[in-house]
Specification:
Elements (H helix, E strand, L loop, with lengths): L8 H16 L4 H17 L5 H16 L3 E5 L1 H18 L3 E3 L6 H13 L5 E2 L4 E2 L5 H4 E2 L9 E5 L3 H9 L3 E5 L6 H5 L2 E3 L3 H15 L4 H8 L4 H22 L1
Parallel strand pairs: 1-2, 1-6, 2-3, 6-7, 7-8
Antiparallel strand pairs: 4-5
Helix pairs in contact: 1-2, 1-4, 3-9, 3-10, 4-5, 4-9
The structure holds adenosine-5'-triphosphate and magnesium ion.
Pathway: Cofactor biosynthesis; coenzyme A biosynthesis
InterPro entries: PPS/PS (IPR002855), PPS/PS_sf (IPR038138)
Protein name: 4-phosphopantoate--beta-alanine ligase
């Protein structure tokens, strides 16, 4: 049992969830490494939602509400860390959940779907009858009526190649990635440089607030959004934090 008073409580709890995910067979062992990389960047960003990330989260919520066919992609880390919160967001913006894995096995896909169903998910797309062009077979498998047909895809923790391929298909890709330098962060349409644990509830909170707005008002929120600026601001934040550390040691 990790005491709440532990200075690294949240990070340790996230590790527990990922380890538990591996034990249940929903998270890949490589997912442990991905979480470690994310944690390192979270440290540098100050383990908080920055102002620029919050803005990206609001724009993401507006985009999801404006979408004709939004889909939320779920991998093993996302299912372990924020399964329940993703279901809530899926309901708020009326976007089905689709399990889409880098290290894909049908067994793990089924385990993740079972996990999401046990948490109450009803809106799942489950076929793998289409391929994202330009990727080798397993990573490319998607549902023809899900990610393949979507106009807006939320991809928490996506791989760079697949993010690029989805953008290449003309989709709006919203990525959640703590590393502003990753290929995913660089190629997504909207990059949320924040921990998935903070980002998903924040997007849901905005979706709840913005739900009643007219389309034109939602478009105003999205208009003028500049992802290059979001990434620059994230890097500046890291820079600022590093410089403040120089003074302390
Ligand atoms: P890319 O393929 O985009 O170049 P990568 O190969 O460096 O990235 P991957 O292993 O493909 O990384 O994906 C993991 C990404 O997810 C990393 O960029 C990491 O920072 C990020 N990440 C891991 N855990 C979290 C988390 N809890 N919240 C947000 N981002 C995370
Ligand atoms: Mg990668």
């Amino acid at each position: 049992m990790i005491p709440k008073s532990h200075p690294r409580y949240e990070s340790l709890m996230a590790r527990e969830l990922i380890v538990e995910g591996v034990r249940k067979g929903i998270t890949s062992t490589q997912g442990l490494i991905a979480q470690g990389r994310g944690e390192a960047f979270d440290y540098l960003i100050g383990e908080k939602t920055t102002e620029s990330a919050l803005r990206a989260e609001k724009v993401a919520a507006a985009k999801l509400l404006l979408a004709k066919k939004p889909v939320i992609s779920v991998n093993g880390n996302a299912a372990a860390l924020v399964g329940f919160e993703l279901i809530r967001l899926s309901e708020l913006v009326n976007a089905p959940l689709e399990v889409n894995l880098f290290h894909r096995t049908e067994e793990r896909v089924n385990k993740i779907m079972g996990h999401l169903r046990s948490l109450g998910a009803k809106n799942l797309v489950t076929k793998n009858d289409a391929l994202i062009p330009g990727l080798e077979h397993d990573r490319a498998k998607v549902d023809r009526d899900g990610i393949f047909a979507a106009d807006v895809v939320l991809v928490p923790l996506e791989d760079g190649d697949r993010c690029k391929a989805l953008v290449g298909m003309g989709k709006t890709v919203i990525a959640i990635d703590l590393n502003p330098l990753s290929r995913t962060a660089q190629c997504a349409t909207i990059t949320i440089v924040d921990n998935i644990i903070r980002a998903v509830p924040n997007i849901s909170k905005f979706a709840e607030e913005l739900k009643e707005l007219e389309q034109e008002q939602l478009k105003d929120i999205v208009m003028g959004y500049d992802n290059k600026q979001t990434l620059s601001l994230a890097i500046e934040e890291i820079n600022k934090n590093l410089i403040s550390f120089i003074g302390r040691s």
